[in-house]
Protein: Rab family protein
Organism: Kwoniella europaea PYCC6329
Amino acid sequence: MAEETPVKAVQVKLVLLGEAAVGKSSLVLRFCQGDFNENTSPTIGAAFLTQKCRLENRIVKFEIWDTAGQERFHSLAPMYYRNAQAAVVVYDITKAASLEKAKAWVKELQRQANANIVIALVGNKLDLVSESSTSPAPPASSEAPAEEEEEEGSSEEPSATPTPNETESDDARQVSTAEAEAYAKESGLLFFEASAKTGHNVGEIFTEIAKTIPFDTIVPKSTTNTSGNRRSGNNNNDNGSNNNVNLGEGQQAKKGGCC
Ligand SMILES: Nc1nc2c(ncn2[C@@H]2O[C@H](COP(=O)(O)OP(=O)(O)OP(=O)(O)O)[C@@H](O)[C@H]2O)c(=O)[nH]1
Ligand SMILES: [Mg+2]
């Protein structure tokens, strides 16, 4: 029933985490501005954007902290995930090592973040793999080979040792859907494969998170400035950090997003 009652806006702090160059900023750019940039700059510190998502009976206003994946910024992360109601942990489906990094982030969140935090595991760059490899594969034996990876590197190393499931397709995929999905399931995470480039599944990530958040544990706030997204390095969050807001490099609110 789509009754148009006045909707309550609920602010949700969401943090993006993941190895460098997996596409965190690109996912946010796609979600918030409906855009994609082949030549993004690595995030320095973190970037902040907001975007609204409309559910049946409420508007969720995501306050998104897009963190830097480079290892030298790791120690800043707790500042961004502290009190977050949601986290999007991103890996690159063409880089097996990035899933291992994502798992480490999930562990850290489960140990140190808000107990009710909703975590979505997102395999990005789906556009780089062939369709035949996107369907779930048979259960993986355990995990992807731990290829050593420089945390800051954006090079896509060829897989020295293919994952058990990779043999069924010889495209760029290094993490099978089944493997990641099984891990997500056992860890209680939402799971998506997405492409910031094409926009595939990007809105769905945030919509699903919005639907999953236990709103009864969040104090609703009516927001007065809810039109579109905005950028700010010093929001009304508890983390009054000086954030380097470099996402979109000077682009102001352009419409995009889920709802
Ligand atoms: N083909 C493809 N390339 C992508 C996708 N998402 C991001 N990229 C590219 O991957 C590179 C890194 O993207 P970013 O969004 O900057 O990655 P990041 O995770 O924010 O990186 P850090 O800020 O350093 O942590 C850029 O060249 C993007 O254009 C995608 O879905 N498909
Ligand atoms: Mg970034």
About this structure: The first strand starts at residue 8 and ends at 18. Residues 136-169, 221-255 have pLDDT under 50 and may be disordered. The chain has one domain: 9-131+163-256. The CA atoms of residues 113 and 189 lie 14 Å apart.
